[in-house]
What we know:
Shape of chain A: globular
Helix content of chain A: 40-55%
Number of helices of chain B: 3
Largest interface: A-B, 21 and 25 residues
Shape of chain B: globular
Oligomer: heterodimer
Helix content of chain B: 25-40%
Strand content of chain A: 15-25%
Structural class of chain A: alpha/beta
Largest sheet of chain B: 7 strands, antiparallel
Distance between the termini of chain B: 12 Å
Order of helices and strands of chain A: EHEHEHEHEH
Distance between the termini of chain A: 13 Å
Number of strands of chain A: 5
Radius of gyration of chain A: 13 Å
Amino acid sequence: xxxxxxxxxxxxxxxxxxxxRQAGYDWWEITEAPDxxxxxxxVVADEPDLVLSDWNMPEMTGIDLLRAMRANGIDIPFxxxxxxxxxxxxxxxxxxxxxxxxxxxxxxxxxxxxIDPFLA
Amino acid sequence: MxxxxxxxxxxxxDPIYEIADxxxxxxIDGEQGLxxxxxxxxxPFARQMHAWVDVHGAISGRVLLSTEQxxxxxxxxxxxxxxxxxxxxxxxxxxxxxxxxxxxxxxxKALVPDPGALSLPQVTHERPPTDPESLLYELALCWRGxxxxxxxxxxx
Lengths: 120, 156
């Protein structure tokens, strides 16, 4: 399973990756992108199995990354890991085709409970 | 100006403390009980650092996190799972403190009706210019014996 983690904070990418390991996904092969535009390039080039993306990023936001992927016919599963978890943002994420939205701060249990159902 | 938060969610407890406690428990400490309200007089900062995010919209405001540089370094080590004597890069300190402000700010924003867009975090050594009359809320916290101050400001 190849997973792309997109977040403009290197520290937060490390925390997300550490939490994924703690949640039991230590077998995942993880790559990192520092913003949405870089993530889009990596998605096109590498075709990962899952994208986990922050929402608020420079260059290209997470929601614009998701829209660009879908507009280009890229159906790779997509989930948000973001500091904002309002109902409005969850609705937008859902409408655009995101599988889930995990709000920061998160725990390994939240990762497991949210992601596991989509791995079956 | 009154801070229009949904206090009912917090059943009478301090909503900003609840948010900060959740952030520190989940992201930084991995256990509860290491963040408490600051007791007694709040001392002035010596080598200060500030991190903030702004919400721009019908209600514009700022969530500002202020602390000592040494505390920011400590926070960064905790966030990255580093040992106490491991050197910390300046860029990582800026990144880490900005992310803490970002996550606290994102959760505060969720309490405000019809919020606008959240800015990217900014981090400086100088306190950002703020009008004392626009201060909405101030909370002094003690994390492992070190001072952290969260303030909320209205922006014109």
